[in-house]
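Ex. 9. Protein: RRM domain-containing protein.
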Amino acid sequence: MQVTQLTQRARRKTVALELPSRWFDGQVPRQVNNIGPEFCWHQFALLFGQVATIELVRPNASVLVQLLVSYKEPEGAAAFMEALTDRYLLYTKSGVPDDCYPVTITPGDGYSLREYYCSTGCCLSQVSYFAMSAVYK
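Predicted structure tokens for RRM domain-containing protein:
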């Protein structure tokens, strides 16, 4: 599905961005953490629109985390998805040279995405199906 079709159908204000948990080692101790302006991820999210909240969800015993970015307007989430789909992120603060990760984004409702990631710790492909099926209902 093309990005424009996806953004037209998913007028949600929240996106979940999958990231390696090693990018957050020692920074976020709890399963769900509010990310404030002092974090580089908050500044990154602001590039696409006004941010309402950012939460980092760390499922138990997972090597992946989900950055839940809720924008004040759906256009912020749409811009985020359009700019990052089919891309890689490079984390320059990593101790690993050329620490890249492929971008995986799931649009959805912030509460539903948070609850799903916290309760199951499942893989993102299952959440993508969950979030997209909610969009099409």
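Check your answer against this statement. The beta strands are 14-20, 32-34, 51-57, 64-71, 88-90, 100-102, 105-108.
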